[in-house]
Amino acid sequence: MIGAPREAQAGQQQGKELMTGAADDIIALYRRQGPAWAAARNRRLYERGWLDRFATLARPGATLLDIGCGAGDPIARYLRDKGHPVTGVDAAPEMLALFRENLPDATAEQADMRGLDLGRAFGGLIAWDSFFHLAPGDQRGMFPVFRIHAEPGAPLLFTSGPSGGEAIGTLAGEPLYHASLDPDEYRDLLDANGFYVVDHVPEDPACTGHTVWLARRRGD
């Protein structure tokens, strides 16, 4: 029993190191495994209900910014087919190559979403299953990024966890990092950056258990 606290501390340290390493490896992981994931990705479009609400809030024909766009199929393709040009942003060039192949007429930008500054605002922003791979501090830093890229009235759609914390999943057998802030903190960050919450559903049973946020930038 005397050694138990030291063993617990060692376990906690190993856990922190695993989290930090997995968080730092996200871009490299998607460079290695993203194309295989994209090929196997379910295209049933279980997100349709949320995407329809998001698109309805955007002004007709508005250009949308897909942050962490991946291969662009099915989400960006669906929004494009609803009459919204899409600009995709991803840090992994392998994923952008697939995006350009799937949406050859769309604009694609290679960039890390952290600190993103494209120099223009868009009629809607989406960060579906991408933003939640950032560490908590980096997530907090994304809300000013959302603000500078959102036109007044533009909707913002993103996924998170149901409560604050970090978790490790797997992608092709490799550790895959996820994190979430508490819902109240997301609400505060949205409000402080000029957005109001339209809807928030934790672990939506109609969307394979995703926790979804739909917000909208206030008019200036």
TrEMBL record:
Keywords annotated in UniProt: Methyltransferase, Transferase
InterPro entries named among the record's database cross-references: Methyltransf_25 (IPR041698), SAM-dependent_MTases_sf (IPR029063)
Xref: SUPFAM superfamilies: S-adenosyl-L-methionine-dependent methyltransferases
Methyltransferase domain sequence ranges: 65-147
GO terms of molecular function: methyltransferase activity
Gene Ontology biological process terms in this record: methylation
CDD domains assigned: AdoMet_MTases
Keyword Ribosomal protein: no
The protein's name in its UniProt record: Methyltransferase family protein
Naturally occurring in which organism (per UniProt): Allosediminivita pacifica
